[in-house]
Amino acid sequence: MSATLPQLLDQVLHQINGVVLGKPQQVRLAVSCLLARGHLLIEDLPGMGKTTLAEALARSFGLTFNRVHFTNDLLPADLIGVSIYEKKTETFQFHQGPLFCNVLLADEINRASPRTQSALLEAMSSNVVSVDGISHPLPQPFFVIATQNGLDQTGTSPLPESQLDRFLMRLSIGFPDRDAERNLLLGHANPVDQLENGIDCRGLIEAQQQCSDLTVQSSLVDYVLDLLATSRYQKSPAALSPRAGQGLIAAARGWALLEQRKYVTPADVISVFTAIAEHRLDAGQPRGPDSLSEHLLKQVDAIR
Fold first, then answer.
1. How far is it, in rounded angstroms, from Cα 159 to Cα 290?
2. What CA–CA distance (Å, rounded) separates 79 from 54?
3. 214-304 belongs to which homologous superfamily?
4. CATH-assigned architecture of domain 23-186+193-199
5. pLDDT tens per residue across span 171-223
6. What's the pTM?
C-alpha cells in the first residue's frame, strides 16, 4: 500500500531532523512555510546550519537548488540573468541567472546593496521577473530561503520593510542542545547529499493545494482578526498588515497538515505566530528576549 500524503510529509520531517539535529520546531516551521507557498528568512550566526537546512528541504522535495552568496558587489543581473545579442539570429537572447530554480538560497542577503536586495521583490511577490520589458516566469514551486547576519555585524544593509514583509517567516535556528551537539561532533548527523526525495515536485504542488483547502472556521478567522487589530494599537515600530493575516492563516494550514488534521485550530495559529509576526512588529530590528509577538498573544488571549 502506497503511503498517504501525511505519512510522506512525516517521513520528510524525520529525514530532515536526521540532518539538522535537535531542531524539530524550526524544521517543522520551515516545511510549513514551504507548504504555505511562502518565503523564509533565517537570521543567525554563521555555522548554525542555515545552509544545511535549505539544502535538506530542496533534496527532500526533489527540487532544483541554487545558492547565491550576496556580496556588496553583486548586481541584479548576476541574479536574474541578462539579454545577450546573438549575431547569428540578430536578436537578443535571455540567459537565465541562478534565480531560475525551485529553491534559491540567498546567502547573507543583507550584505548586498539595497538595489540587489530589491531585485528579489518582484520574483517573490509574483513569481516572474522582467528583463527589457519581457516577463519570464519562474519555475514552480518557487521558494526563497534567505539568510542574514545580525545587523550589528560589519557590512550589513537592513532589508527594507517592503521586502521584509515578503518573507512569510523569520526563524533563528539557535545553538543545539548538548546531546544534539555531541551527536554532531561525533559525526552522527546524516549527510545532506544522501537524502532521498520523500516527495517529488509534483507531489509538493499537490500538498500545497491540499494545504490551501483545509477547513478554517469563522471563529478562527475572528481570532486572527483580533490579533491583527490589537497589533495596530500597540506602541511598536509596525503593525500587522492584511498580508500578514493571510500568511498567518496559510502557515497555520501548513502546520495543521503536518499534524495530520483536515482543519485548523487556534493552537496552529499560535505555533506559527512568532515566526510570522515578530519581524513585522519589530520592523526587522532585534529586541532580545522582549518578544512583541508573545506579548500580543497574551493580550488577545485576555481579550478573548
1. 21
2. 18
3. Magnesium chelatase subunit I, C-Terminal domain (1.10.8.80)
4. 3-Layer(aba) Sandwich (3.40)
5. 988 888 899 888 888 888 888 888 887 788 888 999 999 999 998 999 999 99
6. 0.89
DSSP E strand stretches across 70-197: 81-86, 91-96, 103-107, 128-131, 134-137, 143-148, 169-171
CB 85 within 8 A of CB 92: yes
CB 220 within 8 A of CB 255: no
* Distance in angstroms (rounded) separating the CA atoms of residues 146 and 143: 10
CA 271 to chain centre: 15
Contact 50, 20 (CB under 8 A): no
Q: How many C-beta atoms lie closer than 10 Å to residue 225's C-beta? A: 12
Q: Which residue, 104, 88, 203, is CA-closest to 145?
A: 104
Residue 2 has pLDDT above 70, yes or no: no
List the domain boundaries for the chain. Answer: 23-186+193-199, 214-304
